[in-house]
Amino acid sequence: MVDALDIRILRCMGIQPYGKEPRALETLKASHIAKRIKTSTERVRDRIARMEQSGIIGGYELFPNYRHLGLAATWFYLEIRDEDLVDAAIDKIEPVEGVVGCCAFVGGLLCINVHYRSPADLARKLRLLESLIGKGEAQKFYDVDMPRVDRPLAGLDWRIIKALREDARRPVREVARDARVSEKTVKRRLDRMAQEGSIFVIPLLDPSRAEGILMFSLAVRFAPDAGPSSLVAVEAALRDHMVAVDRTEVPQLGSHAFLLAARSMGEVEALRKATAKVQGVAGARALLFRDARENWSWLDEAIDERIRASSR
Q1: Would you tell me how many other CB atoms lie within 10 Å of the CB of residue 186?
Q2: pLDDT at 212
Q3: Cα(226)–Cα(278) distance, rounded to whole angstroms?
Q4: How far apart are CA 237 and CA 233, in angstroms?
Q5: Which residues contact 6 (CB under 8 A, 6 or more apart)?
Q6: CATH class of 4-65+150-207
Q7: Fold match flag (4-65+150-207 vs 208-291)
Q8: Strand ranges in 65-172 using DSSP code E only, listed in sequence order
Q9: Sheet holding 139-143: strands in order across?
Q10: Could you tell me if residue 82 is left (phi over 0), alpha (psi between -120 and 50 degrees) or otherwise beta?
Q11: I need a labelling partner for 118 at 20 to 30 A (CA). Which of 2, 62, 66, 73 fits?
């Protein structure tokens, strides 16, 4: 059973493969998490082990910073009231080049994550997606933030990334053996890439393995005159349920999207109402996940291409 402590641990670990700031590898260590949430290392270690054993944490993956691939990514959304049409739209657009992921929410909201190389490339991809969906114009939800990168990755860096992509906890000695370098070299390269924001290592969260838990997004709108204290108050109200938060750009939906965990629909509504009552909040809308799909095959192909290019 997931509780508030588990949620705080997951929030500290970070479940999103992106962010404005670099995320050091120590972020995943029990000792680092324990210090941040003011509890014992043993307690954190036991909780992480329990979530791994139950499958709530289904492993760990490594993701490169999109900027090293010459890419940016943005989430878009469309309001489609007919959920059957949303399902049909997802089936059409999921295989399209550039579509990283799709999310369908109860009520007919469709969100699409698109990667692109330039504004012209993005415009072309959006035109194709809108023509396939046939239900209006996609609106920007939020950009996927990545730290600025100041140096290109070397061929060895890309080989290390490939070796750890789908199993970031793979023993360093195996990676070093396959890359024909020392363990010290692999560790040094990994630490450097993490510290400069070139890679993100995240736990793979599977909420379906958490009995009695509902994952949902709470879109929060703040009044024009709301100050920073309003956001602080909302985060305090959601503290025991908040897994992650994104800054959005959609006035009609909200300026922040909080990924939350609740035990029932009643608790979902209670959290929404509590947030709506915070001074400075103009509205709060609960978005319940109905379907979510991701496609990372393009990323693995891009990594392979970088490795081939480095060996030419």
Answers
A1: 23
A2: 82
A3: 10
A4: 6
A5: 47, 51, 56
A6: mainly alpha
A7: no
A8: 72-79, 99-105, 109-116, 139-143
A9: 139-143, 72-79, 109-116, 99-105, 281-294, 214-222, 254-262, 242-250
A10: beta
A11: 62
The first and second tokens of residue 258, run together, are: 């909080």
Q: Say which DSSP state 51 is in.
A: H
Q: What is the pTM of this model?
A: 0.91
What pLDDT is stored for residue 253 in this prediction?
A: 66
Residue 137 to residue 123: CA distance in whole angstroms: 12
Q: Supply 207's token pair.
A: 């909420």
Nearest to 257 by CA among 248, 269, 268: 248
pLDDT by residue for the chain (312 residues), tens digit each? 789 999 999 999 999 999 999 999 999 999 999 999 999 999 999 999 999 999 999 999 999 999 999 999 999 999 998 899 999 999 999 999 999 999 999 988 999 999 999 999 999 999 999 999 998 899 998 999 999 999 999 999 999 999 999 999 999 999 999 999 999 999 999 999 999 999 999 999 998 888 888 999 999 999 988 889 999 999 999 999 999 998 886 666 678 999 999 999 999 999 999 999 999 999 999 999 999 999 999 999 999 999 999 886
Architecture of the domain delimited by 208-291: 2-Layer Sandwich (3.30)
User: Which DSSP symbol is given to 152?
Assistant: P
Q: What is the per-residue burial (b if ≥16 Cβ within 10 Å, else e) of 151-160?
A: eebeebbbbb
All structural domains of the chain with their residue ranges? 4-65+150-207, 208-291
Query: For residue 63, what are its two tokens?
Result: 């993701």
CA distance 213 to 240: 13
Tokens representing residue 287 in the block: 């978005």
Neighbours of 194 (CB within 10 A): 20
Chain-centre distance of CA 162, in angstroms?
20
Q: Which of 77, 159, 69, 148 lies closest to 115 in space, CA to CA?
A: 69
- Where do we find the tokens 């692109």? 116
d(CA 104, CA 78): 10
